[in-house]
């Protein structure tokens, strides 16, 4: 009996030699095994038990028969067991029943079919013959199958892609489980079938061939799982039999049935014998397979073992849930592969979920708790999520297991940018802080100040303040939304906490607590109305279901009904507090304005407008004024009946502000009088209010341009205008121009005249200032970025305000510089400045990678999507600029092993990697890059006279980094173009100074298997990998590119000859032709001539690959790494340390999200706000 008290640390092998199993047990001779069946336990089990008879008989009439060991059903004659399972057209039950019938008729043939099933499932083309099965030992059979294995193919059924093979794996596992279930009453005890199968799988699991090892381990683990289920059923039956026996024996002698007692004793004995045999089988699999394979070199195999041992411990906890088996899961939690660590955590979750098992897990928890806590910071997000969920289950089982330090390490993860991690941490936080209620809370109301929710809201505020991450309230609310949504939607309790006076004996709220509560309330309202995560935590808006839409509408209606009444009161109470008012004024943006009319709430609207007007009059802070402006913008919606009422209030306010500004300006600009500080403050404060409103409202009818022009012109003439007044006057003028541009873009037939009318009424100097010299402006912008962004931290004296040792100041200064760089990169992306100005940005990629690498990389990606060729020309221009700078520093006789030259070469290698693996998509861009590089290399003659290499010849060494990105036929074309610049004497030179030319020519003349591979990858799906060594390049020629896809490569029937080293695929864009018939002028420029129409249509396909860069890749490992399946989202980047390096963990998450920094939704200037 396998009971908890009787099961030892490991299953014990039986003492009899004939049942001993090991990894090198040979396949026994069938005649010897047949002789064994007549004696011992097998002899007693020659017939089926009653429970199996019906199941075995089901095979008859199932319509599935076998001929010579092969299935035939519905036209599937002569199909092997492997083929039937692979097709998946037959029910597994009928396939197994058919095999059992075959086993009854001739067990050798049936067992041979089962052996070949496992061999073929491993992807082996060989088969075990009856002769081999009869006379060869197990190890010899495996060696023979290994020799017949097709090693050229790296794929086998368990790893092949496609829906058929994914279904095969589940069918394979199901087949093994059903096989044991159907044979559990007699066949598995015949000491023949199971002995042979276990011996075979044990031997295969020790093979050097991965396919054998992987497949046999999966089969052995599933076989073990099925046997554990059989052992569990036997244990239950034994317990039932024992209870029946005890009940019968305890009867008085007159009522006791001795025959029944004898039958129960015999049944218990048979069950015990069966359980002993099952125990021996499990012992053989555990010792022969699991103990060796749970630490296999292949992560998938290790994961299989851990997953299945978790199933055993959960299924049969009395036998397996002890430290002898838990230790394997605990050890494997340190595995280097996230997939295996994930299986450990999911296995443990199944155990901790059952509270009845907690006492058996106490020792394991105390031993491995620290490891589980540390896994919440795992680099694999999926592992971190499951670790937090496991700790939540641990917390649910006992509050005393986790210390305060353990809990705090999970609490801060609610602010994680990865939403699944944050949501899991939010659930942990809710379980720890909010789910426990004391007896004093039983009679408290549900809502209100003195309520259960009121206390929980206070707890949330205290946690938010203690976390010291006050700017991330939206992250906290989003983390708690799924588990504490009802609490966060209790806006009545929040309002009561803010407006009601504290009860006698109740501690009053402090100012910072009220500020935090208002921020949490705003974030909760935004989450309810927008129904998507905050910025930086989520891939974008998803489509809401019908139920979610209804909930959204209901929440919005309830928010409007509550806050339409409460908001004026809140504004009146906190009108002097800028931070509170700023958050409160954002609430009307989420209102359903129709309710003001349908709910007869007009008087509350009037009260709200009065409070907003008072806030505008009291405050001059930009954030407060912009919030007021956006509130008016939200309320002034022409679709609702309240529009006229709000529009009148807005116009009255603006009339007063503009009149006051004009009056103050007239006094301020009077000649001969020096303005005092009070006048300047009045002008500035009024100008701030007008500018804030002009941001969201069209104030063109007030003609603010004239007033601001007078103000700026006076400042230019006198030079004594206060800086803040100049800044806000320029900003207001900027809004005037943007609103005129918005009107022009609406499609008026007189666009040009409308635009010119902005400036025609003003002096010529104003027009010149607005139009200006555009190229000079671009140069000034670029110089500003180079002077203020690409600087060392130690030299940034101005940005740190003299606090060089203050790390927070340095981080804030870096944040400002990153924003400057991102703003300039947007100008490049939106084509405001020329793309080639990006060369000065791109060349800083290596030096400032740690500070700006993500922004520069995202800019490269966006520019490639706009124009591949121009982007490539910009990249080569940046390399040329660096090369020229090196020449000016080191002279023309520099050493090519110098750090400067090697740095440029390394940057070129990084640029090359950004073009990805699909060379067909970047074909034109790479070709133009080589063209510009060749021209640059031969541009300047040698200063030492003829016979010496050109001044820039060493640049070819840098250019050779891009040769691997050329298609094989294009290398020939580029080589022909190179020869146009070479003389006959150059081709004969072998001195060291000519090595760049020699190496570049060699890189173009190499046939390159990688080129063939790249052509193939262009036609195949990205998910497929090229594993076969017998690839046939010619097969790719069957597919043609779409018409016009690469038409740029042909001009007036221009054809290009490819090298003769390998047969070339016949592409629609390349045709073989004798190069002697080419005209010189067509040899390169004709091929790469690009029309403006082609450029304007866009050169990048919609599925363009993102920029890829593996900074850990060395030159000798380059091809190997490129052939790896690249995961662009999870590639690790480890750069050498630099003095500008800043750990990203020290910086705010929002600052370092390149996708959000470069997001198209963030427009140039304030165009989107104007719209």
Automatic annotation (TrEMBL):
Biased composition (Gly residues): 56-66
Coiled coil segments of this chain: 231-284
Gene Ontology CC: one annotated term: nucleus
Amino acid composition bias (Basic residues), ranges on this chain: 36-48
Protein family: Belongs to the SCC3 family.
Function: Component of cohesin complex, a complex required for the cohesion of sister chromatids after DNA replication. The cohesin complex apparently forms a large proteinaceous ring within which sister chromatids can be trapped. At anaphase, the complex is cleaved and dissociates from chromatin, allowing sister chromatids to segregate.
UniProt-recorded name of the protein: Cohesin subunit SA
Source organism per UniProt: Oncorhynchus kisutch (Coho salmon)
């Amino acid at each position: 009996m396998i009971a908890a008290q009787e099961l030892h640390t490991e299953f014990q092998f039986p003492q009899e030699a004939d049942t001993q199993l090991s990894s090198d047990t040979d396949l026994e001779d069938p005649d010897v095994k047949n002789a064994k069946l007549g004696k011992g336990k097998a002899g007693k089990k020659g017939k089926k038990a009653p429970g199996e008879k019906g199941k075995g008989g089901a095979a008859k009439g199932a319509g599935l028969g076998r001929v010579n060991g092969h299935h035939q059903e519905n036209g599937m004659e002569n199909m092997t067991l492997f083929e039937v399972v692979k097709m998946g057209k037959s029910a597994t039950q009928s396939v197994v029943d058919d095999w059992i019938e075959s086993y009854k008729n001739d067990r050798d043939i049936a067992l041979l079919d089962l052996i070949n099933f496992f061999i073929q499932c491993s992807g082996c083309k060989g088969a075990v013959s009856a002769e081999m099965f009869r006379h060869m030992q197990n190890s010899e059979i495996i060696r023979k199958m290994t020799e017949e294995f097709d090693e050229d193919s790296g794929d086998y059924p368990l790893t092949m892609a496609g829906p058929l093979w994914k279904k095969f794996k589940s069918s394979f596992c199901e087949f093994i489980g059903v096989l044991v279930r159907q044979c559990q009453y007699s066949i598995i005890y015949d000491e023949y079938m199971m002995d042979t199968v276990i011996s075979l799988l044990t031997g295969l699991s020790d093979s050097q061939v991965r396919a054998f090892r992987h497949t046999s381990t999966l089969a052995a683990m599933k076989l073990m799982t099925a046997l554990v289920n059989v052992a569990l059923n036997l244990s239950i039956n034994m317990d039932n039999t024992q209870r029946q026996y005890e009940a019968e024996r305890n009867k008085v002698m007159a009522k006791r049935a001795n025959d029944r007692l004898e039958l129960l004793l015999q049944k218990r004995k048979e069950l015990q014998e069966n359980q002993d045999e099952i125990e021996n089988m499990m012992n053989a699999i555990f010792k022969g397979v699991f103990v060796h394979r749970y630490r296999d070199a292949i992560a998938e195999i290790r994961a299989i073992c851990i997953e299945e041992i978790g199933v055993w411990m959960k299924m049969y906890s009395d036998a397996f849930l002890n430290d002898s088996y838990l230790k394997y899961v605990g050890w494997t939690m340190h595995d280097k592969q996230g997939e295996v660590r994930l299986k450990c955590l999911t296995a443990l979750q199944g155990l901790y979920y059952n509270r009845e098992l907690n006492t058996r897990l106490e020792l394991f928890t105390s031993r491995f708790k620290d490891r589980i806590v540390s896994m919440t910071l795992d680099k694999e997000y999926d592992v971190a999520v499951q670790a937090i969920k496991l700790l939540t289950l641990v917390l649910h089982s006992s509050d005393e297991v986790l210390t305060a330090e353990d809990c705090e390490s999970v609490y801060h993860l609610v602010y994680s940018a990865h939403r699944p991690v944050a949501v899991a941490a939010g659930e942990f936080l809710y379980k720890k802080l909010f789910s426990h209620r004391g007896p004093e809370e039983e009679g408290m109301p549900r809502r209100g100040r003195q309520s259960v929710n009121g206390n929980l809201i206070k707890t949330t505020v205290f946690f938010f303040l203690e976390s010291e991450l006050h700017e991330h309230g939206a992250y906290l609310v989003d983390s708690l939304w799924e588990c504490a949504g009802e609490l966060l939607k209790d806006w009545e309790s929040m309002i009561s906490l803010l407006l009601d006076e504290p009860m006698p004996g109740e501690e009053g709220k402090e100012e910072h607590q009220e500020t935090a509560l208002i921020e949490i309330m705003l974030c909760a309202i935004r989450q309810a109305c927008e129904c998507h995560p905050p910025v930086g935590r989520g891939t974008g808006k998803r489509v809401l279901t019908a139920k979610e839409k209804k909930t959204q509408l209901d929440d919005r209606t309830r928010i409007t009904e509550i806050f339409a009444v409460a908001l004026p009161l809140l504004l009146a109470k906190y009108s002097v507090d800028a931070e509170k008012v700023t958050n409160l004024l954002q609430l009307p943006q989420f209102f359903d304005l129709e309710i003001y009319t349908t709910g007869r709430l007009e008087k509350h609207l009037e009260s709200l407008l009065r409070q907003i007007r008072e806030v505008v009059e009291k405050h001059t802070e930009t954030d407060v004024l912009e919030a007021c402006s956006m509130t008016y913008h939200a309320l002034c919606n022409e679709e609702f009946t309240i529009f006229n009422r709000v529009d009148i209030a807005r116009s009255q306010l603006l009339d007063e502000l503009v009149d006051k500004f004009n009056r103050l300006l007239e006094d301020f600009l009077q000649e001969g009088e020096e303005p005092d500080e009070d006048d300047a403050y009045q002008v500035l404060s009024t100008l701030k209010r007008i500018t804030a409103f002009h941001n969201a409202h069209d104030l063109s009818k007030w003609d603010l341009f004239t007033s601001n022009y007078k103000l700026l012109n006076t400042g230019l003439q006198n030079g004594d205008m206060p800086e803040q007044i100049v800044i806000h006057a320029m900003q207001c003028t900027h809004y005037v121009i943007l609103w005129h541009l918005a009107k022009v873009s609406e499609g008026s037939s007189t666009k040009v005249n409308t635009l010119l009318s902005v400036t025609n009424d003003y002096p010529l100097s104003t027009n010149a200032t607005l139009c200006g010299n555009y190229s000079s402006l671009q140069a000034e912008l670029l110089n500003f970025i180079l002077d203020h962004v690409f600087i060392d931290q130690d030299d940034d004296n101005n940005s740190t305000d003299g606090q060089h040792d203050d790390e927070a100041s340095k981080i804030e200064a870096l944040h400002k510089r990153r924003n400057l760089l991102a703003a300039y990169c947007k100008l490049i992306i939106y084509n405001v400045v020329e793309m080639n100005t990006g060369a000065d940005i791109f060349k800083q990629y290596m030096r400032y990678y740690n500070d700006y690498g993500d922004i520069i990389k995202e800019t490269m990606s966006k520019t490639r999507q706009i124009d591949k060729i121009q982007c490539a020309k910009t990249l080569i221009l940046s390399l040329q600029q660096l090369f020229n700078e090196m020449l000016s520093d080191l002279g023309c006789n520099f050493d090519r092993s110098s750090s400067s030259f090697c740095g440029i070469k390394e940057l070129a290698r990084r640029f090359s990697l950004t073009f990805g693996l699909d060379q067909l998509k970047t074909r034109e861009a790479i070709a133009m890059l080589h063209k510009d590089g060749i021209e640059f290399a031969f541009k300047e003659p040698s200063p030492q006279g003829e016979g010496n290499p050109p001044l820039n010849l060493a640049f070819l060494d840098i250019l050779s980094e891009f040769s691997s990105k050329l298609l094989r036929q294009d290398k020939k074309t580029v080589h022909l173009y190179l020869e146009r610049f070479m003389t006959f004497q150059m081709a004969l030179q072998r001195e060291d100074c000519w090595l760049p030319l020699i190496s570049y020519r060699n890189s173009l003349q190499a046939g390159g298997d990688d080129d063939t591979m790249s052509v193939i990858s262009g036609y195949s799906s990205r998910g497929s990998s090229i594993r076969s060594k017998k690839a046939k390049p010619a097969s790719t020629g069957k597919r043609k590119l779409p018409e016009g896809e690469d038409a740029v490569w042909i001009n007036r029937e221009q054809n290009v000859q490819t090298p003769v080293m390998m047969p070339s695929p016949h592409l629609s864009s390349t045709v073989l032709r004798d190069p002697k018939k080419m005209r010189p002028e067509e040899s390169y420029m004709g091929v790469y001539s690009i029309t403006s129409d082609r450029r304007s249509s866009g050169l990048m396909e919609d599925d363009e690959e993102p920029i890829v860069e593996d900074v850990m890749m060395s030159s000798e490992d380059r091809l190997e790494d490129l052939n790896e399946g690249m995961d662009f989202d999870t590639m690790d980047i480890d750069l050498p340390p630099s003095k500008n390096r800043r750990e990203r963990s020290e910086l705010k998450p929002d600052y370092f999200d390149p996708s959000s920094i470069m997001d198209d939704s963030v427009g140039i200037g304030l165009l989107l706000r104007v719209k």
